Amino acid sequence: QLFVAEVNGKVVGFTCVWLEYETDTYLSSLTDYAYISDLAVLPPYRRSGLGKALLKEAEAFAIQHGAKVMRIEVLAKNHIALDVYRKAGFQDYEIALQKSLVHNNHGPLSQE
Questions:
Q1: Is the pLDDT of residue 112 over 70?
Q2: What DSSP letter does each residue of 31-95 carry, written as one string?
Q3: pLDDT range class, residue 103, cuts 50, 70, 90
Q4: Beta carbons of 93 and 73 less than 8 angstroms apart
Q5: Which residues pair with 34 in a beta bridge?
Q6: For the chain, what is the largest distance between any 2 Cα atoms, rounded to a whole number of angstroms?
Q7: Which is the most buried residue in 26, 36, 62, 112, by most CB within 10 A?
Q8: Which own/partner pairs from 24-32 qualify as long-range (CB within 8 Å, at least 24 positions apart)?
């Protein structure tokens, strides 16, 4: 489902929410969840409550369709979005780690 935010007839933000169904999973309490794949608001319209309103629409849609959990991902350095999501009630669920395999842009790390 795609939700858009409009100001004076101009689309200035959107969110997309997917309904996911996991069958035969060992984490039975986490089945039937909604996943927000995208949330974007144009820079001049940020901090105006549009992102929060879009999240509320996505949440209402998810609840209406039986989702028990809603998930979203954010880059670790995107502190503004992370703050918005936490204020909207999201909590840490999974942490993905990354390691660069290139040292100083000169190729792979040596195995010394």
A1: no
A2: -SEEEEEEEEE-GGGTTSSHHHHHHHHHHHHHHHTT-SEEEE---TT-HHHHHHHHHTT------
A3: confident
A4: no
A5: 19, 70
A6: 61
A7: 62
A8: 29/68, 30/68, 30/69, 31/68, 32/66, 32/67, 32/68, 32/69
Q: What is the dihedral of CA 54, 56, 58, 59, to 10 degrees?
A: 160
Q: What is the pTM of this model?
A: 0.77
What is the Cα 100 distance to its own chain's centre?
24
CA angle 83, 44, 10 (to 5 degrees): 115
* Contacts made by residues 6-9, CB under 8 angstroms, sequence distance 24+: 7/45
In the numeric block, the tokens 């996505």 are attached to 58
Q: How far apart are CA 96 and CA 111, in angstroms?
A: 24
Please compute, for residue 82, the number of CA atoms within 13 A of its CA located in the half-sphere on the CB side.
8
Q: Please tell me the distance from the alpha carbon of residue 26 to that of residue 89, in angstroms, as a whole number.
A: 25
